[in-house]
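Duplicate of #3305? Posting structure anyway:
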């Protein structure tokens, strides 16, 4: 069986979402049966998306929405990937100054357009990033990578 390929795409400006992304990556890399790559949203493209078996998306909450960089990633990849990734498992992590629900909702709407499948509740780190947030992020990465490796999604 081929190694499952996990792609983590994120954007950070203040560094908070970057801390979460690093923790997600560390957790995912505990699962040696999964190959994990992490890219900033502006650096990720269609080929990256088409060559993954699962996707973790990280964003800050900006004005109750996802970051412009993550939206740009969606804008650049949607039509080239349309209909090519049905059922792709994904999950979301958000660094939120408020409640994060707007970012999660809008990512979900776009993911539905791609035909992806959300496989776990979003991780929303509200206010300052704490060790508990980082532990939860590492757990998200490990659990997602394990799920891919076991082909349960």
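Output from current build:
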């Amino acid at each position: 069986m081929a190694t499952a390929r996990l792609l983590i795409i994120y954007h950070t400006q203040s560094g908070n979402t970057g801390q979460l992304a690093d923790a997600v990556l560390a957790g995912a890399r505990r699962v040696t049966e999964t190959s994990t790559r992490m890219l900033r949203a502006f650096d990720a493209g269609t080929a990256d998306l088409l060559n993954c078996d699962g996707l973790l998306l990280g964003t800050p909450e900006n004005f109750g929405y996802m970051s412009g960089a993550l939206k740009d990633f969606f804008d650049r990849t949607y039509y080239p990937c349309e209909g090519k990734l049905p059922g792709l498992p994904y999950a979301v992590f958000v660094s939120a100054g408020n409640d994060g629900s707007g970012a999660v909702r809008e990512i979900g709407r776009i993911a539905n357009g791609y035909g992806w499948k959300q496989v776990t509740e979003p991780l929303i780190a509200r206010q300052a990033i704490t060790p508990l947030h980082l532990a939860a992020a590492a757990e998200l990465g490990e659990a997602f990578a394990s799920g891919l490796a076991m082909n349960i999604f």
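Confirmed duplicate; merging threads. The first helix runs from residue 16 to 28. The longest strand covers residues 89-96.
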